[in-house]
Specification:
homotetramer; alpha/beta; Rossmann fold; Dihydrodipicolinate Reductase, domain 2; 3 domains; eight-stranded mixed beta sheet; 14 strands; globular; nucleotide binding (chains A, B, C, D); GFO_IDH_MocA-like_dom (chains A, B, C, D)
Amino acid sequence: MGLLKMGMIGGGAGSFIGDVHRKAASIDGMITLVCGAFSSTEEKSLASAEALGIPKNRAYGSFEEMIKKEALLPEEERMDFVAIVTPNHMHFPPAKMALEHGFHVICDKPMTLTLDEAQELENIVESSQKVFALTHNYTGYPMVKQAKAMISKGDLGIIRKVNVQYLQGWLSTAVEKTGQKQASWRVDPKKSGIGGALGDIGTHAENLVEYITGTQIEELAADLSAFGEGRTLDDDGNILLRFKNGAKGTMTFSQIATGEENNLGVKIYGTKGSLEWYQENPNELIARWLEQPKQIFTPGGNGGYPEASDYVRIPAGHPEGYLEGFATIYRSFAKELINIKNGQSMAKKFDFPTVKDGTRGMKFIYAAVKSSSDNAKWVKI
Amino acid sequence: MGLLKMGMIGGGAGSFIGDVHRKAASIDGMITLVCGAFSSTEEKSLASAEALGIPKNRAYGSFEEMIKKEALLPEEERMDFVAIVTPNHMHFPPAKMALEHGFHVICDKPMTLTLDEAQELENIVESSQKVFALTHNYTGYPMVKQAKAMISKGDLGIIRKVNVQYLQGWLSTAVEKTGQKQASWRVDPKKSGIGGALGDIGTHAENLVEYITGTQIEELAADLSAFGEGRTLDDDGNILLRFKNGAKGTMTFSQIATGEENNLGVKIYGTKGSLEWYQENPNELIARWLEQPKQIFTPGGNGGYPEASDYVRIPAGHPEGYLEGFATIYRSFAKELINIKNGQSMAKKFDFPTVKDGTRGMKFIYAAVKSSSDNAKWVKI
Amino acid sequence: MGLLKMGMIGGGAGSFIGDVHRKAASIDGMITLVCGAFSSTEEKSLASAEALGIPKNRAYGSFEEMIKKEALLPEEERMDFVAIVTPNHMHFPPAKMALEHGFHVICDKPMTLTLDEAQELENIVESSQKVFALTHNYTGYPMVKQAKAMISKGDLGIIRKVNVQYLQGWLSTAVEKTGQKQASWRVDPKKSGIGGALGDIGTHAENLVEYITGTQIEELAADLSAFGEGRTLDDDGNILLRFKNGAKGTMTFSQIATGEENNLGVKIYGTKGSLEWYQENPNELIARWLEQPKQIFTPGGNGGYPEASDYVRIPAGHPEGYLEGFATIYRSFAKELINIKNGQSMAKKFDFPTVKDGTRGMKFIYAAVKSSSDNAKWVKI
Amino acid sequence: MGLLKMGMIGGGAGSFIGDVHRKAASIDGMITLVCGAFSSTEEKSLASAEALGIPKNRAYGSFEEMIKKEALLPEEERMDFVAIVTPNHMHFPPAKMALEHGFHVICDKPMTLTLDEAQELENIVESSQKVFALTHNYTGYPMVKQAKAMISKGDLGIIRKVNVQYLQGWLSTAVEKTGQKQASWRVDPKKSGIGGALGDIGTHAENLVEYITGTQIEELAADLSAFGEGRTLDDDGNILLRFKNGAKGTMTFSQIATGEENNLGVKIYGTKGSLEWYQENPNELIARWLEQPKQIFTPGGNGGYPEASDYVRIPAGHPEGYLEGFATIYRSFAKELINIKNGQSMAKKFDFPTVKDGTRGMKFIYAAVKSSSDNAKWVKI
């Protein structure tokens, strides 16, 4: 398992997004994490490496060290690419260096701290002939790909109206003053750049609508706000949009939308039909039509285009997330085995179904068949 | 990555559930697939192994061969456990043999072909002192664990009524006559046992309600049907339930419920409150109360018990499935790199965001900030 | 307004269902309430009549008096029909008497206290040549009629499975011991007959599935319970169903399903498609298909059959209930006028929009048009 | 029934909104339609009057005639108020005249054709000492009143963000060129004023957010569009909002949002909580909180404030619309009786439940009780 070797920059203990990248990289069995500069100090980086099962000699104290040393390793051993999961201000330096040392790069968004950096990076990528991917993950959902396919095939006619929202509430209170790590860098212009919520989630909304519609925002009129006391970066914004193809629309995003979790959603209206999708319920793509009833498309379900179903890992009705529920059983089982490996006595400490559940299931089957064969007579299990 | 070594029995090319097990096993980075008897012939097994990046010498032609040969390998090399993902009639033989050779086992459900086998297996597990896990995966969802926790803490009072459903439509037509592999063994009593839909999905429903409620079905009255022409096993069933604690209820399941994808759902009513959950929308647990408004619990969201939030891999609002969307970006990126490794020229053949998307995002941020600082004046991107 | 003259039996002060009947009768402007025997005593009946604007001489102390006296009035004055809205045990006597005196009857359900009464009433109706209607109101929803039409036209193929539920929680606690009027007669076999929740809501479920499917329940196996301490009538039930056409299914109903309000819902599966409908969200009829995406039908919306759209009072998207919201404005306005009529000074005591809201709306229009004509410049309202 | 006497201006045959006003006025039994100037010609007005059961001498050829003649009738006979349901340009003249002749007025929105008219009308209302109500009907929903009450009590803290939408698709194509009456005046500035969709539905959105939040829009930046070929009035608009209390937000409305029916919705975010409500599902008010799970409020349900529950006509779970379903039974019954009155033979031509349904229900009860008393044995109905 794992045909490609990944080195990670950032993502040490306590990092949310580093963990997400690692899990996402491992699902399809094509990528193995082989090294990392997980934290800004060698000590912390080592601790993270150990927890992740990475050998000591592949845990580096800085991204510079990692890139240099890995470049000297034989090809079959050295990392193939780096995954950059640091705060925004630390995207450009390692990306540049990695590309210049011959490594492919996959990087969190927004891509850089400044627009100048972004444009420089674009040039570097082009001259390096290396692959650069940005994790605008919301374009990875099958139903987003279905939406894009439906529009590019003309199913909706000409797009005339777009409403996109990305609503979170986690900055409704002054969490950045409570020591919460992510909050503190998100509200700091030195680490986040000139956009706060705008850079963090507004760019997702921008990317999503341009990805799905196949057209681009031509001009915008934005009203950004910093509602949180003492904040200099926006934590909320409302934007009027005009698209190159003549469509118009709105974008609204917020991190002070109290109680909202991660409510990214989009509505797109064409002359023949329209689409609606929400990330919190990602398995439903709602389509409305001029003369037909509203339809609901699902991953792998009826009416799906290959452009979408190619990205479905499981059958229709098994929601995105089915794999994770399944993985939970494996994880609890694995934890039990690791405890045993570590010399602990076998005591079912973790929550997974056992042989007793299996027997119980068989008894249920037998009782049900017996009852049914006797015209639904009551049978004790 | 991968502290535990997994051997797989079944799950060769074209197997749905084998792939699910592999992906589920890999998400948390604790398990590595090291060997397999993927198919009933050595040739097919080898082909599967190659596709999965397993060395030839760890691809076996039969589970017997695998268990015997792996048992002879040094501990640091040999598999720690086997994952059994074959049709039902091939669960018991490899489970028994693996346990007797000192391997832990994780096995698909229903556990065995017959109740006799189940009871024998229970004895073998006990005497082997090995861990046996059954993949009743629906108990792996955080909101199912939240439901269980709420009931065990008494939040709902005494449970009085339970309605559970598991509705699929994939056997609405005679797909077993079209050569569809899974359909053909599911309707075959020699491979499935005495229960059809009952064994395949009824057992999930049974396991789910007993898991959540903490009580057990005491007796049942079942009305099973085989609507599909020529079928001998049930493809639909309706059951009256009576529970040990005095609760009563219904179970309905079907594989001829036309248009249903995987509609597993449960409603549980207590004296103080009630719960409702559907697998197709697994991030919502609906709670109703005697005197308070209806509430919606979400993974990692407000009001979640540790028993549930311990099983959440990502923050609230990032649905189950977020990891898979994310993984799609990684997979497309990986495919591009593999093509390059294989000597193909760099041509962006797969769908992932690139440096251009990154620059576009930066331009969007700059335009929005400029517009906002000029009182929402229109700014071109 | 009001071409038909209605007399009401029951429905005095504090009666929920009497008020529902009166409002329902008045919506379409075809029926006027002209007389009533609203309560068991003349005094109470008079008080109700006064509140309803019925002249004293048309308020009767008993249904017998009303039927006799009304029958003597000239045709252009006397009631055309009676509406019977008493508890179950008082359905049969007035229905019989009214029919025998030449009046049409509309009656609440269940129709009678006993099956014998029902069969006798059937004979009386036949010989009387009068119209008898039973208010199985749930068959009055446009989406229920759409469902019936789709099935009768064969859109779903042959019906094979039916799941119906009617879940309420209002008897979860012992409300009948708190003096709540409706609860006390509902749990009293002398007033309700042999069925408790069964008669009250189970019959609605029975009527609904037979109405929609066009076939009938042939046999059933029922497990009724009285969970509430001291209750002799069922407050919960689970039933296996077999239909005349070969379909099978379940019915579950409850008045101890804590937190449920009025959750009547039905799922019907055919060989070609299936339908799902819930009374608490009555404007959506969900259709699933063998090969097409799921569809949502709405009253007056795309794809509706005339059999349904003939029963829609308002355009698509104006939900059932739009009229009531509208009526609320009228009611508050009416209350204000009545106060003024009664000599009170004009003081806006009730909640309705006024001329100031109208001016505000005009200012909004003017500001928006001005802003837009100036390229979305900010304009103060 | 009907303590107040209503005269109607407009609302003749083929008018959607006239019919809505009549039905809304009649539900609560407080208002009777006694006269009308239903159309612009006496002939058409007479025809409408006849269909509505209004005597000939109370059907007028013009509103001027009606107001003058009604003013001369004795008080117990003459109308108490006029309901104005004409196109926008015909709101002001009859409203002015009615008020000046001593009649109260209830009027459709937007209130007038121009802002000047609105301000003049405001003065007239004040000097007339008559009641003027505007049918901003969406403020009549119980859950809208619940939202208003929650905010005014401070449950949500300080309001910071408001997103409101009103999306329809009925002008997606050039229906105004097909002879559709409403479409043709809606797109005509002479009849609609300077706002198209803005005046028709934008004003509803404006009224709704100001009603609920208790604050007002202070300034706005609007981008209006006329997508339909040849249209001079807007059929779509996007607006940035700033409120007097410091909140910011967006409004988006459209009549070219293909497939949308009547999707009015609002999201309001405060420092302590937030609310979300949609007119197409009016029985649910979603509340999100800083630290508690999401809640769903329902009309008459748990947690409702008296400010809302005072406006509920039926118990919790009986959705808005329950009355209309109920009324459908009454209407079919009434049609049958009218046919009979008109001398037709009794033939059940309309769809309502009969005595046979009643007997069937009794048989169902008897069968279920018998089965249950015999331990759920099968019993034939």
